[in-house]
Design a protein that fits this description.
CATH superfamily of the largest domain in chain A: Nucleic acid-binding proteins
Largest sheet of chain B: 6 strands, mixed
Strand content of chain B: 35-45%
Distance between the termini of chain B: 39 Å
Helix content of chain A: 10-25%
Number of strands of chain A: 16
Chains: A alpha+beta (220), B alpha+beta (252), C alpha+beta (238)
Low-confidence stretches of chain A: none
Number of domains of chain A: 3
Radius of gyration of chain B: 19 Å
Mean pLDDT of chain B: 95
Mean pLDDT of chain A: 91
CATH class of chain B: Alpha Beta
Number of strands of chain B: 12
Helix content of chain B: 25-40%
CATH topology of chain B: Ribosomal Protein S5, domain 2
Largest interface: A-C, 29 and 37 residues
Structural class of chain B: alpha+beta
Shape of chain B: elongated
Radius of gyration of chain A: 20 Å
CATH topology of the largest domain in chain A: OB fold (Dihydrolipoamide Acetyltransferase, E2P)
CATH architecture of chain B: 2-Layer Sandwich
Oligomer: heterotrimer
């Protein structure tokens, strides 16, 4: 049975005229035409023609909330894997409130290799990604489990004003933190069921009627 | 992070993909997938995907086995199959895999090598069993061994005319005497799990692969992993493997 | 190539396998066949089968290989030992090294590598069955794999082989035709603006013949593009 799918476009496909619409994310202009860069879903809104890619790696942007894994403790900060082609760095000053003399302190007592953190992206200068924990939502995530989804599908997982993710949380009694970088952290009772729902959303983000399918999955 | 979760689940005999401790993932066997080969098979165990191709050539016998065909098994951990596989000559894991699969075939006398002698001491058939990994999601050994046997069972020997191999004329089937099947069991947190996937392989204490013949005899074994196994462990794992091999055999 | 034969290879306008001169073999394309890869595809033209896997953009080491303002693309074309008549010794050959290079250059112009500085896009092509035209089959598969991986592209890349036997221009040569053809012209292009990204030739052709082959490839290659489009859509329409 074919489920209804939103309009899929392929790379190189001409979407419209640059005189009539503006070129949004995922497109480029060539010879006065707006062309798709990605295999994705076409989106027309506010006079912009964009394409949401159906796959692809995470490109860090300032103020994104991400979930990362501490991979190395350096002298004045920590190296963090944020599921991206570029590694991120959490400077000491952005990770700890008090003044720390790093020459005398073993800073691994704050964050150590293997720790999972919910952080915010600061400056991103060409492959140099800085993180900060200086924001109310930032914290270490203890216990629980992490899974990865396609970063471009995060908005679908969250839903309009959090509607989708809240449904999953309520029906499974779990705490869920979603990183813009496609890393999702789940903790609580029915983790397996929550993970199943999250994976389904990742696979079927482009299907119309997904909300009903998720509701059904969670009610069983 | 995942390790903690996996170990917690194992305490109650649960696995991250919902399988039972002694359950294999879905097994799919397809033969004749590479028509250029004299025999071939593609085996999928869950998301693990392996192709084995059998090629036959003419060569010189080993001096201590002058009237027997020569079996050569190789494996390529192509970088297409795993972000951590690098291009280059086979590393220790690919080499070990090839040798494990080879032993399963050789020690069970699976192929009737005497029937592959063309001229004693001078010319024999060489059987190349080439393992090509397409996607690695753990348990490459069982998938490769199963694919090798499936390929061998459907392989045919080309005709020889005036000392030349005529590959588009395939004559007799490769003479198979025994059919070994390999079962891999992992040990972690004091429990045994069958067919570990890639994530599970990373937390195992140890792994044991057992090649079993159709009459229940064991013909090859390999222990892997950084931790040790007790004698009790081995006794149990061997019995479990022999029992499970009957199930895998049904796919051939 | 260039082998002589008494056999007529084109009889009554039909080739050995019954095809018309500009007709393709049976084509099958499937996207998303290697779960570990960011993108992948398996493509079959008759008895030639290629599988492509893309990893990236991802971190590139050693650091000195990184380019400050762009990603780099690496490509490895490899033939499985059982993919050919006489078993191929595993590992790169001079032929596969060259094909890896021209394949990389066939795909590179289509990619927006500048969007991912300091990283690498790795493209792997494995030939599982070889019956002529393996490099173009590999490029067709790689193009799909790149789109599947979400690497931003200006256009897909379409590749097709061309040749001439019995004074007739033919496309998509099988192994036997490749042996007897008077020339082998592999070509790859981006269809929207017909920009050619791979062109090689060996054999003997007049400039007029060569130009007609290229013209025919650019025209009939559209059919391959339609198949690629279909395959990409199919992944999301099951």
């Amino acid at each position: 049975m074919m489920e209804e799918v939103r309009d899929i476009v392929i790379p190189g496909e001409v979407l419209g005229d640059a005189k009539e619409k503006r070129a949004g994310y995922g497109t480029f202009i060539e010879d006065g035409k707006i062309v798709s860069k990605f295999l994705g879903i076409q989106k027309d809104s506010n006079g912009f023609m964009s394409v949401i890619p159906l796959s692809g790696v995470y490109i860090p942007r300032r103020e994104d909330k991400v979930i990362g894994f501490v991979t190395d403790v350096e002298k004045a900060g920590w190296l963090v894997d944020i599921n991206s082609p570029w590694q991120a760095f959490l400077p000491l000053s952005e990770g700890v409130d008090e003044f720390i003399d790093f020459k005398r302190t073993d800073i691994s007592k704050f964050y150590d290799v293997g720790d999972v953190i919910y952080a915010q992206v600061g400056d991103t200068k060409r492959g140099d990604v800085q993180l900060t924990m200086r924001t109310p939502i930032a914290r270490k995530l203890k216990g629980g489990v992490t899974i990865k989804i396609t970063p471009s599908k995060v908005p679908r997982l969250i839903g309009k004003e959090g509607s989708m993710i809240n449904t999953v949380k309520e029906k499974t009694g779990t705490i869920i933190r979603v990183g813009q970088n496609g890393v999702v952290w789940v903790s609580g009772e029915k983790i397996e069921k929550a993970i199943k729902a999250i994976k389904m959303i990742d696979e079927k983000a482009h299907i119309i009627g997904l909300t009903d399918e998720i509701t059904k999955l969670l009610s069983d | 992070m995942q390790t903690g979760y996996m170990l917690r689940l194992l305490e109650t005999d649960e696995r991250i993909d919902g399988r039972k401790m002694n359950e294999f993932r879905e097994v799919k066997v397809e033969t004749n997938v590479a028509e250029t080969a004299e025999g071939s098979a593609r085996v999928k165990i869950g998301k693990t995907d392996v192709i084995v191709g059998i090629k036959m050539g003419m060569g010189v016998p080993f001096s201590d086995m002058p009237n027997m065909g020569v079996l050569k098994t190789g494996a390529e951990f192509t970088p297409i199959a795993d972000p951590d596989f690098e291009s280059g000559p086979p590393g220790e894991n690919a080499t070990e895999l090839a040798r494990i699969v080879d032993r399963g075939i050789r020690e069970s006398d699976s192929i009737d090598l005497e029937k592959l002698c063309l001229k004693e001491r001078e010319k024999v058939w060489e059987i190349f069993v080439d393992i090509h990994i397409i996607n690695n999601d753990g348990n490459l050994i069982d998938a490769s061994a199963l694919a090798a046997i499936a390929a061998m069972k459907t392989a045919k020997i080309p005709k020889i005319e005036d000392d030349k191999i005529i590959r588009d004329k395939l004559e007799k089937k490769l003479p198979i005497l025994h059919v070994p099947v390999t079962v891999t069991i992992g040990k972690v947190a004091g429990k045994f799990i069958f067919d570990p996937n890639k994530e599970e392989e990373e937390v195992l204490d140890a792994k044991l692969s057992v090649a079993v013949m159709e009459d229940g005899k064991v013909c090859a074994m390999q222990k892997q992993g950084t931790h040790g196994l007790t004698e009790e462990d081995l006794d149990e794992m061997i019995d479990l493997a022999v029992k499970k091999s009957k199930e895998l055999r049904k796919f051939l | 190539m260039g082998m002589k034969t008494e056999e007529k290879l084109i009889v009554n306008g039909k080739r050995l396998d019954g095809r018309k001169p500009n007709e393709f073999r049976d084509i099958e394309m499937k996207v998303g066949v290697i779960p570990n890869a960011n993108g992948s595809a398996q493509v079959r033209f008759g008895k030639t089968v290629a599988i492509a896997g893309v990893y990236g953009p991802r971190a590139l080491f050693p650091k000195h290989r990184q380019k400050a303002d762009t990603a780099i693309i690496q490509c490895r074309y490899n033939m499985a030992p059982f993919s050919v008549d006489d078993r191929a010794y595993p590992g790169p050959s001079r032929r596969s090294v060259e094909i890896s290079k021209v394949t990389r250059l066939a795909l590179e112009p289509a990619l927006f590598l500048e969007d991912y500085p300091e990283t690498v896009v790795d493209v792997y092509i494995e030939i599982l069955q070889a019956d002529g035209s393996t490099r173009v089959t590999g490029i067709n598969a790689a193009s799909l794999a790149l789109a599947d991986a979400g690497v931003p592209m200006r256009d897909l890349v379409v590749a097709v082989s061309g040749g001439k036997i019995d004074d007739t221009i033919i496309l998509d040569m099988c192994g036997k035709e490749d042996n007897y053809s008077e020339a082998d012209v592999p070509l790859a292009f981006m269809p929207r603006k017909k920009i050619i990204t791979l062109l090689q030739m060996d054999g003997q052709l007049t400039p007029k013949e060569l130009k007609s082959i290229i013209k025919e490839q650019l025209k009939t290659g559209e059919k391959i593009y339609e198949k690629q489009k279909e395959a990409l859509n199919k992944k999301y329409k099951e």
